Amino acid sequence: PGTQVQIAAAWLIYLSSSAFKSGSCSTDKELESRLRQNEFLDYAAKYWGEHAREVESEICELACCFLCDLGLLSCAAQELPIYQYRYSQNYPKITALHYISKVATWPV
Length: 108
Fold this sequence. Notes:
Keywords: Signal. Residues 1-19 form the signal peptide. By secondary structure, the protein is mainly alpha-helical. The chain has helices at 2-15, 28-37, 41-52, 56-67, 70-79, 82-85, 96-103. The protein has one domain (2-103). It contains seven helices and no strands.
């Protein structure tokens, strides 16, 4: 569990970076640039919850801070369907509860 705490915390700290506070990108070009500049964004946005599955109580505060920031949340949510739709604006605008249900397999 110690390793999973460190990994989950690292991804949440990464996703909480000021680089993502501006929220979702408004154009495909902007999104492509963000992904080039932040190579781990796609993975972190989609899979941090898997690393947190068995250690949710240890990372709860970090997760809550991330999920309560609408800019950070919309940035991460934009990554969820990127390979499905291939357009930066064709993604569901979701709440923190919807997002967490897609990336985590632990009880909310």
